[in-house]
Structure formats: structure tokens, C-alpha cells
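User: My collaborator sent over this chain with a note saying "see what the structure looks like." That's all I know about it. Can you take a look?
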Amino acid sequence: MSPLTRLYLAFSQVSGPIWWLFHRRRLKKGKEDPKRLPEKYGFSALERPGGQVLWFHALSVGESLALLPLVDRALANDEAATVVLTTSTITSVAALEKAGLPDRAVHVLLPIDTVQAVRRFLDHWRPTVAVFAELDFWPRLMFETHRRHIPMILVNSRMSAASFASRDKLHGMMRDILGLFDRLLIQDPESFERFKLLGADPERMSVAGVLKAAARPLSADQSEIVELKASIGDRPIWLAAATCDVEEPAMIAAHRRIIENWPNALLIIAPRFLESADAVEAAARSIFQNVARRSRKELPDAQTNVYIADTIGEMGLWYRLAPVSFVGHSLGPSGKPLGGKNPYEAAALSSVILHGPAVDDFSETYQSLQETSAAILVHNEAQLSQSVARLFDAEERAPLVEAAREVIKARRGVLETTWSAILQAL
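Assistant: Without extra context I'll predict from the sequence alone. Here is the result:
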């Protein structure tokens, strides 16, 4: 065990008061739910049921939604089993409530990385297997899980060049943590090599693909769809999804170009960070007269130019309404490390995918979409506006929708591969 790992584990025995002060500040700012906060200290209001408990962990919204097909498979495999799905962020609470967990599956916030909280969590749930998604590693949690001889599986994990560079600075600790896993299912060959350089055992690793390709289509309330369609009317609609502050002005500028030829077009913009909604509204109002916001319970009507969808857990609604979607975090200034966002969510709901060039976090995914003409790459607002306007034509959209559907179909094998690894551990 590396000296850094030893130091961290020692710190985790006395760090409780620091966590308490941290959460106290967040409570005052409204960034924590006081009813759910005890879960972060290992306390549960739910009793452990009988039978096996399978524990799945994901950092936040997107990662947890990608695990839901595995949750379904686990519950179908054993009618007496229970799944505990943990996440680390409060935003995932609302998103998972919207998505809806099946019976015998519960959502719990991950315990803080102290000896007391972790042991309290593990003592209560006594999981049969622990499945961790992507790269959310907490050393005390990992070591305590391994110490109890609970099989540990890493799934859907990718190591970008930037992630590798930052984690390589903690090489000894990473080697110690990766050595705890019984199986590591990696997204792509490049990540496989980076994990190996960090000390993972290649005999325990395999390239399985991207689990998000097999995720459930995002859910949406049918009554909300009916209400919005009635309010919007028969208008061309496009969506800017999961955008960040450096690209949101380009979305507004592109829409200004679009309405020159499509004056009744509607832009729905769903910012990745809700706190940026005020700035998005200000930018939109500097150009357009009619701007509405979801968080104020306003509906887009026949005159609305821009609708700001600043709520959590409703992306399935927007993808269903908009047949054309720009998937954000991908069109920033040159050199800006944005990384991209998951395009499969749009594809699964037959919304044509447009994206910028900054998609390093999903490079293999976007490459496959490009190779099959299932997505369109744009480099600036002019290209974006031209592509959106062209794709208002259903005949132009049809081949891209079908190509994206075929990509998803070809990649659904990742679900079987991942479930087989979990089943072997069980």
C-alpha cells in the first residue's frame, strides 16, 4: 500500500467534523436536502429486506440512468433480491424520482468517506456484490468493501487523457484502488491502456463498450407532452441540450439566423447548469421579445421565441418535443476542454443529433455516429443554424434517425456483457 493511501485512510478516521461543517454550510445555501442528509452519514430510514442486496453506485444523473437496465436485469434474475442504487449528488434525487425505480430498488445517497459512515452503510445493507460505474472512487469506501470480501466490479468506465494525467499524479493510490476490483469493464481500447498504466491488472480487464448505449429511453410525463404540444402548436422546434455558458450565446445567435427564414421557429434551451438560466434569459431577451422559463411554470405559446428549460429530470420531455437537438458541452472556444455529453439520449428518442468538435469524453461514441452518418458535426453558429434549418424537413431527418437507431442496436451487447460479469460474481 502506498504512503499516500495510508495517509488518506488515516485521515478518513478523523475527518467527520470537517464533513459536518461542509454540509452545514451547504444546508444553509439550500444545496442539501435535510431529510436525505443522514444517508450521507450511513443512516437509513429503510430496513434491510431479506435476500440478496445488490449495490450499484454512480456519481450522478447520467451515470445512474445508464445503470437502470442492469437494475432491471438484477431484479428479474432473483425475485427475492433488492437493489440499492447510490449516487453522490443531490440533483440525482429528483432525476431518479422522474425516471422511476422499479419495485425492490431503492435510491440512497452515498455515505461520506469516513470510517464511521462507510461501516454504518455496509453494516446496514450487507451487499452481496458492489458495482461501481465510471470513475467515482472513494478510497475508504473501496477498502472497507473489499475487506468484507464483497465482489467489486467496475463498469462503463472510461479514462480520458485529461483524467489519466490527473490520476497519474496519485499513481500509488490509484494502483491500490484498482487492485481491489475483481473485474473491470472498460469502454474503449485507449482507456484500457491507461488503466493498465495506472496499475490495473489486464487479466481482470476487458473492453465492453459504452453502457449508455443500452440505457432506457429517458422518461416523460405524457400529460406534460400533450399540454406543451397544445401550447406550442405546429411550429418547427429545435433543442440545445446540456449547454454550458461558453456556448449558450452561440445557441441564441444561431436561432436569430434561423428565424430569418423560419420566423415561427422555437428554440428550447436546457442548460446543463441551472444557475446559468438567468444569464441565458438575459442573452435571449437582448435579441428576442418573447422568452419563457420552465422554472416559472410558464408555457411556450405561439409567440415564444426561446423557451428556457431550467428544471431537473425533464430531458426526456424536450427530446420528445424537438426532432432536432444540439447536444451541448461540445462547441466552446478553441482549446476549451468541454468533453461533450451523451448523444444516445437524443438518438433513443429519434431526435437528430448535432454536436460541436469538443467531444473527447465521448470520442469513440461520436466517431461511430459520424462514420455511419448518424450525427452532424458543426464548428460554429453559422453551420449550426444552416443544419438546424435543413433538418426541419422530416425527409432530411429520416436517414439520420435510422442510422442512429442502427448504432444503438449494434451496441446493445454491452448490457449482456456487463450483466454476465455481475452474474459470475454472484
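A starting point for your reply to your collaborator: The chain has a mean pLDDT of 94.
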